[in-house]
Design a protein that fits this description.
The protein contains 13 helices and ten strands. With 347 residues, the chain is α/β, with parallel strands linked by helices. It folds into two domains: 176 residues, 3-Layer(aba) Sandwich (D-Maltodextrin-Binding Protein, domain 2), CATH 3.40.190.10; 135 residues, D-Maltodextrin-Binding Protein, domain 2, CATH 3.40.190.10. The chain starts with 5 loop residues before the first helix and ends with a helix.
């Protein structure tokens, strides 16, 4: 799907109204899973966008009185930190941008089961089958391209096509970040280890490496490179502002449940060793509930809500139209991906 009607996008962004006042309170939403009232304080190891999580924390505190302390870092940094800390960790909640870091912590047996009432708010495709954490937001893989350098008819039908020598020097990515590593993790789950290893070897020859999705988009916009693999919200966030880093680009969505159509699930989980599990579970209930998901809908992160009760920002292509591959998020593997990407010379 090619997005060419920017006037429609900007109109949609401009007409979004704040709905947070109608959201359910955290106390109300957690009441279905526990009879205790949340109180005290919690520490959240936060790998999600700081502005987004701060908005969640502020609203949760306003509604419950629970103090939320954020320890911010990246997916891999905080995931590995939690594994290292083990049962000595002071974290109550872990939030990620992508699911492999959450799976890493889950596999270390550090997560408590999420309350059933919280799990029920999130459709099955956006949470793991284990029930030890849940999806809290989502982002779509897209191929940003510069129409002055590459025509629509030249765009690849599949992410796998980028391994063809014809794409040498014609596409970019940021392989050192958790975003791209999550995409490779989906490729691993869908195509297997040998195919992923071969694709990464071809990528090493074909791709131009930048640091950060924003940098990839800027390079495409400036005409340094015809196209690049990024997540959708970088483009929408820039379009909602000045548009200076995306004005010469369009977005292409892979279809047919291709690995390039992967939708990455951001995760939220409660630590088994939490000293305040009632408040920790209530915080997760708030994020996945109406009030927390409306912060996604009306905020500036341009990520997708995953609760069935809240639609995405109307500027976005609906999740239901993305034709993404169905993958159990708990099966996405950060350790094997790191090994494969190191072997390929990216890490």
């Amino acid at each position: 799907m090619i997005l060419t009607r920017r006037w429609a996008l900007l109109t949609a962004i401009g007409t979004v109204t704040l709905l947070g006042a109608t959201g359910c309170s955290a106390a109300d939403e957690s009441a279905t899973s526990t009879s205790a009232t949340p109180s005290g304080s919690i520490t959240v190891y936060n790998a999600q966008h700081e502005e987004l999580t701060q908005a969640w924390a502020d609203e949760f505190t306003a509604e419950t009185g629970v103090t939320v302390t954020l320890r911010n870092g990246s997916d891999s940094e905080l995931g590995n930190q939690l594994v290292q800390e083990g049962t000595a960790s002071k974290a109550d909640v872990f939030l990620t941008e992508n699911s492999p870091a959450m799976s890493l912590v889950e596999q270390a047996d550090l997560l408590a089961p999420v309350d059933d009432a919280t799990l029920e708010k999130v459709p099955e495709q956006y949470r793991p089958s284990t029930g030890l954490w849940t999806g809290i937001a989502a982002r779509s893989t897209v191929f940003a391209y510069n129409p002055s350098l590459i025509s629509e008819s030249e765009l690849p039908a599949s992410l796998l096509d980028l391994a063809d020598p014809a794409w040498a020097g014609r596409w970019a990515a940021s392989p050192s970040g958790a975003d791209f590593q999550a995409i490779v993790s989906a490729l691993l789950e869908l195509e297997g280890e040998d195919a992923t290893r071969d694709w990464l070897a071809a990528m090493k020859q074909n791709a131009v490496v930048y640091k950060g999705n924003s940098t990839v988009m800027k390079a495409v916009n400036a005409g340094e490179i015809p196209a690049g693999v990024i997540y959708h919200y970088y483009w929408f966030g820039d379009q909602a502002g000045t548009g200076e880093n995306s004005s010469s680009t369009e977005m292409y969505y892979f279809k047919n449940q291709d690995p390039g159509a992967f939708v990455s699930v951001s995760g939220g989980g409660v630590l088994e060793t939490s000293e305040n599990p009632v408040a920790a579970q209530a915080f997760l209930a708030f994020i996945t509930g109406k009030g927390g998901q409306e912060i996604l809908q009306t905020g500036t992160s341009f990520e997708y809500p995953v609760s069935g009760s809240v639609d995405a920002n109307p500027a976005l292509v609906p999740l239901s139209e993305l034709d993404a591959p169905v993958i159990d998020p708990s099966k996405l593997n950060s350790t094997t991906v790191t090994d494969l990407m190191t072997e390929a010379g990216f890490l």
